Every structure is written in C-alpha cells, then in structure tokens.
Amino acid sequence: MAICRNFLWGGPAEYHKVPLVQWDEVCQLKKYGGLGIRNIMNWNLAAIMKLNWDVAGEKDIILWVKWIHTRYIKNGDFWMYHPKLGSCYYWKEMLRVRNKFKDMPHPKPYEIREGYNWLQGEFAMEMQKVRGGKMRKMAIAIWATAVYFTWKWRNIMTYGIRRHYPRIARELRKEGHNVVVFEQSHDVGGQWLYNGQVHAEDPLGRAKFLKVHSSVYASLRLISPREIMGFSDFPFVTKKGRDQRRFPGHEELLSYLRDFCEFFKLREMMRFNTRVEYVGIMDDNTLELESDIRWVVKSKPTTGSNAKVLEEVFDAVVVASGHYSQPRLPQIKGMNAWRGKQMHSHIYRVPEPFCNEVVVVVGNSLSGQDISMELVNVAKEVHLSAKNPHNISEGLSKVISKHATLHIHPQIESLHEDGLVLFVDGSSTIADTILYCTGYSYSFPFLDTKGIVAVDDDRVGPLYEHTFPPSLAPSLSFIGIPRKLIGFPFFESQAIWIAQLLSGKRTLPSWEDMMQSIREFYKSRDLAGIPKHNTHDLADFDYCDKYADYVGFPHLEEWRKELCISALIKSEINLETYRDAFDDHEMLQVAYQSPHFAQLECLDYTQ
C-alpha cells in the first residue's frame, strides 16, 4: 500500500501528502481522462515498476508520477513531450536519453516477466552500487520504455470470415499487440473461400450456426474493377497465370488475400478450423475497483471427433465476421406450407440443378439479377420478383427483352400448396423452386454483451461510427459493418483507427458525445425516410474521407471515385457486358500513374 500511495502521492517535505495526481483522476475510465487502472494486475505492474524506480536510488519520487501523468492523463506523448521550465534535473535527463530506446522491439509477455525478475534481482543490486552517471540515466529510460510498451501491449482476439480480418490483423500487429485471429475455415479468405458443398437439410439457412459460411457461387465476378479494391500498401494487380480480367472472378480476390497474408506474414496469428462459440464480458470478483473490461472467449476446433472447447481471456475483441452468411428472408403468406423447393441464394452454386424447372427468383438486387441471367440458360422459365418492376434499370430491361423465358413480376402475395405463386398484381405461375435473393442479416450468435449491443431489424447498435459500442469501447469493436462503400480503403482506415485506439495513440470522445452522435445519425436517417434495416448502407465517398481523417489516412483519390462511378453507370446500362466492355482507359492511365501503383516499382510481389 505504501508503494501505491507513493505512486499517487508524492513530494518531499511539506508536499509529502499533496495529491499530484488525484485518486479519482487516475481510477476513472480512460474516456473521462483517467488512467483506467482498475485491475489488480495493473496495480501490481505499477507498483513493481515504482519499486524498481525507488531501488535505482531516485529520490525525487514525483518524477514517476510526472511521467505517468504526461503519458496517460493529459494525452501527451512521452516520446514527443518537451520539458517545461523549472522541471527537475532527473526529469529532463530522462527525456534527453529517451530516443535511444524509442525503437526497442516490442516485448513479448515472457520477456516482460524475465525483465521484472532481472530488474528486481541482479540489476537492482548493481544499481545500489552505482548511484549516478550514464548507467543510471539509461536505466531510467529503459524502465520508462518497458512500462510504455507494457501498457501499450494488448492481447486481442479477432474473429473474422471476410476480407477485413487480414487488414485488422496487420494493423493490430503494427501497433505491437498480441493478436489471435480465429478462422473457422481451413484457409484465409473467409467469405471468398468458395465451398461447392451445400447442405440440403437447411436450404433457407435458418440454423443458428451455419454449416456453410461462404455465399459465393461458382460464376461470381466482382462488380468493381480491381484497381479500386486493393489496400493502400498492396495494390490488386494481375499476376502471371491467373485471372487477368479487370473484373475478375472470386478466385482471383481470394488469391489476392492469400498474397497479402503471405507478404506480411500474417498466417502465424491465425487459428484455422476454429469456431468461436462464445464471447462475453469477464466477471472478476477479485477487483477492488470497477474492472477493466476483459473478454472470455470460448472456441472449438471444427475438425476432430474429440474436439474440446478452449476458454481464454483477451483484453480486446474485434468482430470481423461480416454480414453475408446469415440469410435474410421475407415473410410471405403460405411460405411454410408450400410444397415446392425453397432455398436462399446463400447455398446457390451452379445452375445445372435447375435444368428444365420453373424458378421464381425473389429479389432484384445484384445477386438476384446475376443468378437470373445464369438460370435463364438452363431453366424452363425464370420469374424475377421485384419490389418495383416498373422501375428497373435499362440494363435489366435489355436482358428481359433478349430472353423470352425471363419474366418480371412485382412482389409475391401468397404461396399455395399446389405450387402456385401468386403475385400482388394478380399474375401467377406454378413453380418448382423459389430462390430467395433477399440479402443477409447481421448476426453475432457467439457474442454476449449483456444486452449492450443488439441487432434490431438489421441495425447493429448502438455503435459510434458503425464501429464502437460506447459503453464497451475500445475493448469491443466491429469492422466491416457499413455497406455500399469502396470497401478496401474504408476498412483499412477503420482497422488503423481501432489499432491506434487500443494502443493509446488516439482517444474516443466521451460516452455522452458518442451517444449523442449516434442519436443524431439515427434521426437523420429517419428524416430521410431510410428504413431501419438500411441503417448501415452508406454509399458515401465523404464518409470514407471522414473516417480517414480520424487517423490521418489519405482521402479517396479522384481516379478511384471516377472508376467506381463509371462501373456503376455501366452496370445500369449494360448489365450483361459491363464487366468486359468499358471505355475508362483515360482514367485508368491516371490511376496507374498515381503513387498507389507507383509503389510497385519498389515492392516485389507482382510476379
């Protein structure tokens, strides 16, 4: 207790009982400006380092408090801080020699433990003999550096099945965190890891934990050109012997993600064939004060008949599980009694099983249009049900006029046991199969936040900037929630923000300010008439730039915006051919001359 008291109070003579750092300022949450030291383990760490400070013979005990106050309360950076006039000699000396140790490698947990033993043992004895000089000054800087990296270091769990988790894994490791990525598949790629096997026993995907997680069908191609999709430090370029198309198939994007992981050596952080079954807030009755939020994670191998659940504790959790696995289904009268085959596009792979069938495709989105154009070549008839069949794109109109067996209808009124599908305009057909291309829902069946985070009609919240639940930030974050953005640049800036917040480089607004921001966003969506289930559909270049500003990430380049808009316009006009017929060569040359692609001259990953 004496050590802890001296840690918080200090000063010679009449200042012995003066609180240089107030108790409530230290113990309150970091979002309110405190240190957040509410965990016994962290108190022990602080006490051990303070003891080592005393062993070194440092008589000015306020020096330690100054360092903590500078680094953790006033949001100052120890490495950039300049001493003020009147600062004590040892404080100025410690700042003077700090740069010698700025680039020390990030210590691993076992190295930190060994360092404690060494500091308390042999080195402490030597320090009692050597009370001054350069050795002592360097030791002070070493201790400050050790504590800096110890506080900075976090044990972080990432659970992902999409393209985002390689990026967040890289950014977290760059910040010195110890990262574990749980991947339930056998390889990187998540959603883009094509699985030709489908499970007929759950064609609508209603199970809590789906057996098939990829929704990729065999013929799927990207809807955006590869040039706009790469990460900032890893352009998505063509490689010899692979898909050379600008709008490549899903296999090419999977290969890109594999290349990214190999180039930056990310596989060592990943546990493949491992499903996360539970993530919850840790209850710790040993804490004297309000606990730092920590997370219990239970995982289980997906292979092996005797697989056992492994329980671990993490300081932070990043959820990167995506939102293209849990089917979203409409509520249609007679749906449960209809005797034909019903399935969601989640398990659609190839058109051959629908040969000579009458198929009703529900949903006029990207997948609905893509699959309808593919089915029309093998099916007897294809009936596409859209919310507004009189307001379809020019490109879809061209496709319908080209194929006599492709019909457009409004929404379904009801389904009947004899196979009849009745549409709201009174038209009908007798169908063999109904294929629901109705999108996906956000689902986190493994996550228990005690009701703090909930999914309400596809609105995940409350989330500050679609990422942080204010009451649990930054220890819990979500990456990849927003839709209809240029994904790779946005999610890269999102990953950087999460990683830097966890390392203490950046701070979030207060809880009140974050909640107010969320309420204002919800209100703006309501006033615009946007349904709740479209809360996270942003489609906004400016929002990408706003997010980039949080971490000093570059704004979207004009060529990237132009190529994106061009692809969207072409798809509206020529749905069948826009991926292979384009006239954006001038803008493409601007892109290839940009710094993004110029870095290829210095990096060796294009072969």
UniProtKB/TrEMBL annotation:
E.C. number, please?
1.-.-.-
Please indicate if the UniProt record lists Ribosomal protein as a keyword. no
Protein family: Belongs to the FMO family.
Function noted in UniProt:
Catalyzes the conversion of methylthioalkyl glucosinolates of any chain length into methylsulfinylalkyl glucosinolates.
Protein name as annotated:
Flavin-containing monooxygenase
Query: What does the record give as cofactor?
Result: FAD
Coiled-coil zones: none
Q: Note the SUPFAM superfamilies from the entry.
A: FAD/NAD(P)-binding domain (SSF51905)
What keywords is this UniProt entry annotated with? FAD, Flavoprotein, Monooxygenase, NADP, Oxidoreductase
